[in-house]
Amino acid sequence: MKILVIGSGGREHALIWKIKQSPLVKEIFCAPGNAGTARLGINIPIDAKDLTELLAFAKKSRIDLTVIGPEVPLDMGIVDLFEAEGLKILGPSQKAAQLEANKAFSKDMMKKYGVPTARYSVFDKIIHAQDFVEDLLKTPPFVIKASGLAAGKGVVIAQSIAEANAAIKGMLTGKLFGDAGREIVIEEYLSGEEASFLAFTDGRNIIPLASSQDHKKLLDGDLGPNTGGMGAYSPAPVVTPAIHDKVMVEVMRRMVDGMAKERRTYRGILYAGLMINGDDIKTLEFNCRFGDPECQPLMMRLKSDIVPIMMEIANHGDIRHFKLDWDPRPALCIVQAAHGYPDAPRKGDEIVGLHDLDDWKDIVAFLAGVKVVDGKLVTDGGRITGITGIAETMQAVIDLVYPAAHMVDFDGRQFRDDIGRKALGR
Ligand code: AMP
Ligand code: GLY
Predict the structure, then answer these.
(1) Which residues' Cβ are closer than 6 Å to ligand 1?
(2) Closest ligand 2 atom number to CA of residue 292
(3) Neighbours of 274 (CB within 10 A)
(4) Does the first or last residue of the chain, that is N or C, have fewer Cβ atoms within 10 Å of its Cβ?
(5) 414 CA to middle of ligand 1, Å?
(6) What is the pLDDT along the chain (426 residues), one digit of tens a residue?
């Protein structure tokens, strides 16, 4: 088989690393890819948003299966476009991808089908939103979300009415997130511990992946600004067997059935971002793809061949009898980000030490914003590497991955020192 993976992050590097282990696969392409994917397959210099060129490439190269990393091409309708041409592709249709791309729609779906989530209201007028915060909610924190796609940055947790009013105005006037902010969701603030729950679905059957946990804030102790994710591990002990069962029934089952009822049959990876507080679960959001960096530890733990289940979903088949085998050992990924990330990442800093990790046992350096210039590896984005490892216990994997991450260096490198610590406390 020939497989095309779309995207250029650590997630896509991890997907290709896993896909390449399948005996079914002969050739792998990545568009546009990065310096990491180039070591495992062939990078094709086509942007993930250039659907016309991606389609032309897939047809010309007779790609058997296309796998999408990021949400934007899904929201643009890449699945509909490829399927109309008879190509096999893993992911939801444009109508189904609205579960991530349109938070107002997503919240309305959760409400309609009984998926537990924070109470909310949707606004497109500044005055109505500000009145709601001042007269009804009154006490901070206030959670204000751009309805559209904002690269993971569209949520403001305001600590005062003034801050809330500024966020409302910035979003609804289009200043903060462009058109993505012209409709907003204001919702109840939830406390608890977050976890990521991903599953494969064919539109009817749901095969969950192992649980995982992201670290969204830039700094230790969950401080500082939100990022795309500074590290992840799997499994997440906060997802106990009882919580797992509850999520399957109340979140995944209800949403997959709800989407089918709405004639937006959801196929692909369904990702629920959860807030867990004791026995209580609430859904913060749905994503329509693998998480980055959750994908990195998940791929390291997945023992089964990933290609057959992907192909079955792309064929609009039935995954009821698939079973995924997981390495029982925990895996952990530490993201190293560029100077200035997340606001203004600097590019062009030379990265040293990566090749030394090639010989490390149970460690893989998944690369994100890394390119080769004059034979040297240099930073080329916000998140740069995701050093990932697997070991007997959570403490052992922390003790393995941190020294590995310290082998890699570049100017202005930022990373958290506490990835995995929450799991140790449980
Ligand atoms: P989202 O993109 O909706 O997942 O939000 C991004 C991040 O904002 C989440 O991972 C949470 O850390 C935080 N967040 C979102 N909604 C809430 C909420 N209702 N209460 C508390 N924190 C939230
Ligand atoms: N790790 C969060 C995300 O992929 O959206």
Answers:
(1) 118, 143, 145, 155, 157, 187-190, 194, 216, 226, 273, 284-285
(2) 4
(3) 27
(4) C
(5) 23
(6) 999 999 999 999 999 999 999 999 999 999 999 999 999 999 999 999 999 999 999 999 999 999 999 999 999 999 999 999 999 999 999 999 999 999 999 999 999 999 999 999 999 988 888 888 888 777 889 999 999 998 878 899 999 989 999 999 999 898 889 899 899 999 999 999 999 999 999 999 999 999 999 999 999 999 998 899 999 999 999 999 999 999 999 999 999 999 999 999 999 999 999 999 999 999 999 999 999 999 999 999 999 999 999 999 999 999 999 999 999 999 999 999 999 999 999 999 999 999 999 999 999 999 999 999 999 999 999 999 999 999 999 999 999 999 999 999 999 999 999 999 989 977
CA–centroid distance, residue 182 to ligand 1 (Å): 19
Residues 385 and 269 in one domain: yes
What is the distance in A from the centroid of ligand 1 to the CA of 403? 31
Partners of 27 in the β-ladder: 2
Q: State which residues form the domain around 146.
A: 119-188
Q: How many helices (H) and strands (E) does the chain have?
A: 14, 22
Q: Which residues contact 315 (CB under 8 A, 6 or more apart)?
A: 88
| Domain end point (choices 165, 188, 211) | 188
* CA 104 to ligand 1 centroid distance, Å: 14
Distances (CA, A) of 340 to 166, 175, 304, 383: 24, 21, 39, 11
Nearest CA to ligand 2 atom 2: 291
273 and 179 housed in the same domain? no
